[in-house]
Design brief:
This protein has 286 residues and is mostly helical. It has a domain of 117 residues. It has eight helices and six strands, in the order ααβββαββααααβα. The strands form three sheets. Strands 1-6 form a two-stranded antiparallel sheet. Strands 2-3 form a two-stranded antiparallel sheet. Helix 1 packs across helix 8, helix 4 packs antiparallel against helix 7 and helix 5 packs antiparallel against helix 6. The longest helix is centred in the C-terminal third of the chain and has 59 residues. The chain is elongated, with a radius of gyration of 27 Å.
Length: 286
């Protein structure tokens, strides 16, 4: 299976390089090959950087969730000593729990963990960014759809041009960039029907919603909590942690694939160089 996948990736890499050469209607000279390789590596490196960012984000998220779970489990144990067998709600102001070597109340613990509410929405915890887990999942799903639409060589080329335009180039360079951006956008819209700028704006808004600025407020929920309610919250946090780990594993697989494609691109162009050199040597003998 690994060999089949590798062969498929090699074929895809070759098709991508030759496809770009065909679309530019230029001969495969060494200069053209280097230009195609540079463009291909730029695309792949951007993809790898994005995946590395996702991996770091998911890792940090998973670790933060684990810290919360362990602390809340200690709080649950302390609550059990208070509620006894009745299962009545316990005042978190009266429950003491150890955190970072200190004895603090349950409310103070929730403040330290930046948990604003222990209630759930659709059976899921409410996040400190103001999104319920259901809303967060929906936002992440749409963001993933947009990233998939934007994962196109020509679209990535267009976005790179836009980024270069935003970096305040010289007046002459700006005019050239605007012409290239206009041509690239028209090609993309004719081929895909996608409004790139609209998608780009929506992506930025969704990313801002998932990662808002500012610190989360203190605990704002009911200070009297039942053990069952806390158990439910802990279980849902654990589900979030499992999902973050699963996302991390998938991103690791994608990153390994992207790195493999990068190596194949270099190897492919080197092979093409060797073929060109042999052909030139044969022509020289004639």
């Amino acid at each position: 299976m690994t060999q089949i996948n590798a062969a498929g990736n090699t074929a895809a890499t070759q098709a991508a390089l030759l496809g770009e050469a065909a679309s530019s209607a230029t001969a495969l000279t060494p200069e053209v090959l280097m230009m195609l390789l540079e463009r291909r590596l730029d695309d792949t490196d951007q993809q790898i950087q994005g995946l590395m960012h996702n991996i770091e984000t998911d890792t940090a998220r998973s670790e933060a969730i684990q810290v919360k779970v362990e602390a809340l489990q200690r709080l649950r144990t302390a609550m059990a000593n208070k509620e006894g067998e009745s299962g009545n709600a316990v005042s978190l102001d009266e429950v003491m729990v150890e955190y970072n070597g200190e004895q603090i109340t349950g409310v103070e613990l929730l403040n330290e963990l930046q948990i604003t509410d222990l209630s759930t929405e659709d059976g899921l915890p409410v996040n400190t960014d103001g999104l319920s887990e259901a809303e967060r999942a929906e936002t992440e799903e749409r963001l993933g759809e947009i990233e998939t639409e934007l994962d196109d060589a020509e679209i990535r080329y267009y976005l790179r041009l836009r980024d270069r335009l935003d970096s305040n180039p010289t007046r002459l360079a700006k005019r050239r960039l605007k012409r290239r951006i206009h041509r690239a956008k028209r090609r993309i819209e004719r081929r895909t029907g996608v409004d790139i700028d609209k998608l780009r704006t929506e992506r930025d808004e969704l990313q801002a919603a998932l990662d808002p600025s500012g610190e989360a407020g203190g605990y704002q929920g009911d200070t009297k909590v039942t053990g069952t309610a806390l158990d439910t919250y802990i279980q849902q946090l654990q589900s979030q942690g499992k999902r973050a780990n699963a996302d991390n594993e998938m991103n690791m697989i994608r990153m390994r694939s992207a790195m493999s494609q990068r190596e194949q691109s270099v190897s492919m162009v080197k092979s093409m160089f060797d073929t060109l050199n042999r052909s030139l040597n044969q022509l020289a003998k004639w």
